[in-house]
Amino acid sequence: MLTVFLSASVPLPDRDPRYFETADVLAIRDAVKALVGVVVPRGKLVFGGHPAITPLIRRLVEDMRRPVDAHVRLYQSAFFADRFPAEVAEFEGVTMVPAVDGDRQRSLDAMRTRMLTDQTPDAGVFIGGMEGVEEEYRLFRERWPQAPAWPIASTGAAARALWERFGPARPDLSNELAYPVLFRDLLGLDAGPGEAPPPLTDR
Q1: pLDDT tens per residue across span 119-141
Q2: What structural domains does the chain harbor?
Q3: How many CB atoms lie within 10 A of CB 91?
Q4: Which residues, 6 or more positions from 112, have their beta carbon under 8 angstroms from its beta carbon?
């Protein structure tokens, strides 16, 4: 089963302005929606909870009207348990990672480590975001150096910064707004009947 790691968030105005000022919130939501629509019916999507992203993904999988517990895995840190959006309880597949000594950063580190070691992702997709998305990109690259990592620069924020610094030589990550088409192409899901999809590659 194709497994895709998603790192996404919507930048907040009271945090680092370099993320908020370049973010395209509509594009972030459209990209997440498209990725769920492309991956979940045929593969597995793995992501870490975020107050703006978790409810969106929950609504999307509900609209699919099909069992999705084998196709979506949500990771959460117990450190944030008193701030979880209500939708967390509605996910069938949740991995709750214990908090570490009441420390926010160490708890996040523990969750990210579990998220990127429990699974064997075929690819990583990075959408919008702030410093957490940049950190997850770094960890993904360290843990899975052979797997393609695609920062969707058109969504702005951390994804654009990552694409400008490290991104593969694909201008469509910056200018393609037809996200379902983009993700099917990136994931090699347009192969014809009986034809094996091409190998996933950064190029």
Answers
A1: 899 999 999 999 999 999 999 99
A2: 2-71+117-186 (3.40.50)
A3: 18
A4: 48, 135, 136, 139
